[in-house]
Amino acid sequence: MTAQTATPLPDTRNRLSDDGELVTLPGVAAPARRVRVPLDDRAYDILVGDGLLPVTGRLIRETMGVRRAAVVTDETVAGHHLAVLSRALDDAGIAHGTIILPPGEGTKRFGSLETLLDGLLASGIERGQPVIALGGGVVGDLAGFAAAVLRRGTRFVQVPTTLLAQVDSSVGGKTGINTSHGKNLVGAFHQPGLVVADTGLLSTLPRRELLAGYAEVVKYGAIDDAPFFDWLERRGAEVIAGAGSARDQAVARSCAAKARIVAADETETGQRALLNLGHTFGHAFEAMAGYDGRLLHGEGVAIGMVAAFRLSVRRGLCPMADLERLTAHLAAVGLPTRPQDVTGVDWTVDGLMAPIAQDKKAREGRVRYILARGIGRSFIADDVAPAEVAALLDDILADRPEGPAVPAG
Ligand SMILES: NC(=O)c1ccc[n+]([C@@H]2O[C@H](COP(=O)([O-])OP(=O)(O)OC[C@H]3O[C@@H](n4cnc5c(N)ncnc54)[C@H](O)[C@@H]3O)[C@@H](O)[C@H]2O)c1
Ligand SMILES: O=C(O)C(=O)C[C@@H](O)[C@H](O)[C@H](O)COP(=O)(O)O
Ligand SMILES: [Zn+2]
Predict the structure, then answer these.
(1) What is the pLDDT along the chain (409 residues), one digit of tens a residue?
(2) Is 141 annotated as a binding residue?
(3) Where is NAD(+) annotated to bind (predicted)?
């Protein structure tokens, strides 16, 4: 890997500045972007660019010095991209077996974990030989958790194949599975040793999945990066279409944002909770919808961010204009913004309050929420009462528009 010597492009209105260091990789036509996650002895690189999969074996070999690995993927991804990864590993002299799981959120459960761990143990993979997760967030979260507990901790590599996984789930080391009590309630922090995000792989991703990933991109703007949100309002259509360099820039910018927050608070004792904007509500919507494809994670996050901003507005914290701007942008690209946009689920306030009560951010029985003083001005609130949330959800489910704000206190 060598640093590119070409003069960097000047910063313009349409170019993001914090979008990774440009690097030239042998065998890859266009320069890639490199984002470092600085975590002491667990530090690693995220490589973002078109055409990285064919050289992923060499990247793993150079970074980790291994000759053996186990690939975990799902049936859909295997059909599109496994052969290229397999050849890349062969070319790099990395012997490997492959475990292929069914696709979809339903796979992130205890039964699949057991099957996967059995398969990995049967393969004889050692602690120092990486589990390679080739897929979206489901494969990444499940394989990462399996690696975390296999032989009390086995190395692992993320090769994310969805927009969501490239901008979010492959970075930061949150791994885990869902249970009947809610999302990601069993898991571990376990950092990958390398993330290789080949943005060319997104050409086979269905549009609905792309949009779901885009919701997490918007999240970074809404948390603490108003200029990025502005840029997405102008260039979001290009990010989704994969036109020009906008998508690679958005992926690298998102990874840089996440890397910065994770480096400051790896295990979510404080500020990392900001990455949960929209998730306390979103996870509840997902749990109630039943993880069966009616509501994708990113769609739940889009609806959840609107709910969090709406709660902020009614507390007198956030201008109505910012709620409207967030809602308008999500809707403009085709994301749902209300639970009613999801068909076939009988939403109830009680049905949503139960998974909310299980939220991992709770302290001393009180659930914490990520609220906002505006776009790019999110913060952690400890003083939200369950009755306030239930009233909000009641209004949302009844489609009652937001009225004048009542300041909290
Ligand atoms: N660990 C984290 O920090 C983190 C962050 C965000 C989300 N998540 C988790 O990620 C999961 C959602 O991930 P996701 O949205 O990637 O869903 P996913 O993994 O289910 O992938 C979406 C679908 O797209 C298919 N697919 C994947 N790549 C493809 C490609 N290149 N071409 C064609 N089809 C492809 C998959 O087979 C699947 O059917 C949720 O469980 C969520 O909780 C975790
Ligand atoms: O990495 C984080 O931290 C996040 O919160 C990122 C989220 O997008 C992601 O969905 C994560 O899995 C949610 O974490 P959880 O702790 O609420 O389960
Ligand atoms: Zn998420």
Answers:
(1) 333 333 333 344 455 668 899 999 999 999 999 999 999 999 999 999 999 999 999 999 999 999 999 999 999 999 999 999 999 999 999 999 999 999 999 999 999 999 999 999 999 999 999 999 999 999 999 999 999 999 999 999 999 999 999 999 999 999 999 999 999 999 999 999 999 999 999 999 999 999 999 999 999 999 999 999 999 999 999 999 997 899 999 999 999 999 999 999 999 999 999 999 999 999 999 999 999 999 999 999 999 999 999 999 999 999 999 999 999 999 999 999 999 999 999 999 999 999 999 999 999 999 999 999 999 999 999 999 999 999 999 999 999 999 776 655 4
(2) yes
(3) 137-141, 161-162, 174, 183
Ligand nearest to the CA of 258: 2
By alpha-carbon position, which residue is closest to atom 15 of ligand 2?
Answer: 184
CA 150 to chain centre: 23
pTM above 0.90, yes or no: yes
Query: In this structure, what token pair is assigned to residue 116?
Result: 């996967």
Domain finish residue from 166, 185, 217: 217
| 149 falls within a domain | yes
Residue 187 and residue 76 share a domain: yes
Range of the domain at 296: 277-397
The answer to whether residues 229 and 255 touch, using CB atoms and an 8 Å cutoff, is: no
CB 127 within 8 A of CB 69: no
> 208 C-alpha vs ligand 2 centroid, how far in Å?
20
The CATH number linked to 86 is 3.40.50.1970
Does any ligand 2 atom lie closer than 6 A to the CB of residue 137? no
96 belongs to an annotated ligand binding site = no
Q: In this structure, are residues 146 and 72 in contact, taking their beta carbons and an 8 Å threshold?
A: yes
Q: Which of 217, 250, 269 is the last residue of a domain?
A: 217
